[in-house]
Amino acid sequence: MDAILFYCLAALTLVSAVLVVAQRHPIGSALALIATLSALSGIFGLLGSPFIAVLQLVVYAGAIMVLFLFVLMLVNVRREEERSGTGRRLRWTALGVCALFVAQVGAVLTRLELAPSATPFAAGPRDVARLLFRPEYLYAFEATSVLILAALVGAIALARKEP
Amino acid sequence: MSAEMLQHALYLSLALFAIGALGVFLRRNVITVLMCIELMLNAANLAFVVFSRAWGSLSGQVFVFFVLTVAAAEAAVGLAIVIAWQRHRDTLDVDAFDSMKG
Predict the structure, then answer these.
(1) Alpha-carbon gap: B102 to the closest alpha carbon of chain A (Å)
(2) What predicted TM-score, i.e. pTM, was given to this entire model?
(3) Residue among B6, B17, B58 minimizing CB distance to A116
(4) Domain boundaries in chain A?
């Protein structure tokens, strides 16, 4: 049962990820990306991480994608036109670089011997929070709150109309 | 969750990262490029969760949390720059981002 669900979600993730890149109109890409992120959240759940799964759904598929859709509605988006000349050469270079990357990392991954850990694995909010608020991650966690504040102020300052 | 499925989840993460990188190279709309970067960050998150499950350690999940925060900050600042740029030049084409002659 788990396996069927996993492979269905993986296929959905892959297809919608290809759609994100293959579409010419940004609104279509945004909708496909929401599908990708939601399917990924299901995979996180199957991997035994309910906290991350919910976080993915709320923060990514919810907040960040709504931000993207708002901006897409704010600016006037057009369909992309075909690149000419140098752009076409760029396409083959990009395909080559990505194929090389997949070959290299794939070769490493096939040699990896992965097995689910034998010890019982609990990754609920309480377990993650217990680790997050230990001294080794506490300062990094506090630093992220400063980062979010800086991003907030920076975004408002950047997007503000010039007086 | 069997060992095979963990391995396949890692391959899925590799494929997602490659698709995202391809999008960053090929797409011309700057908002689509930002979305492809989000896709790559998600591929990294998937790898973190897989390794967290494989080694029975929660540290991977904490890193996913940090990646999520940084992604939110990046999206906010990136989209603010897009709005400012669009107001300035009335285009979203990445090929037009050449005023610093990079």
Answers:
(1) 16
(2) 0.91
(3) B6
(4) 2-80+122-159
How is residue A26 written in tokens?
């940004």
Q: What is the CATH number of domain B3-96?
A: 1.10.287.3510
- Which residues in chain B are closer than 8 Å to A154, comparing Cβ atoms? 76-77, 80
CB-CB neighbours of A137 under 10 Å:
16
Which ipTM did the prediction report?
A: 0.91
Shortest CA distance to B61 belongs to which of A22, A29, A51?
A51
Q: What is the per-residue pLDDT across A103-125, written as a single tens digit (0 to 9) for each?
A: 999 999 888 888 777 777 788 88
* CATH for A2-80+122-159, options being 3.40.50.300, 1.10.760.10, 1.20.120.1200, 1.20.1250.20: 1.20.120.1200
Query: Residue A27 is encoded by which pair of tokens?
Result: 């609104």
- Which of A117, A137, A159 has its CB closest to that of B83? A159
Distance, in Å, from the CA atom of A14 to the CA atom of A67, rounded to the nearest integer, reads 23
Map tokens 């897409």 to a residue: A72
| Chain A / chain B CB contacts < 8 angstroms | 231
pLDDT tens for B3-42 read 888 899 999 999 999 999 999 988 888 999 999 999 999 9
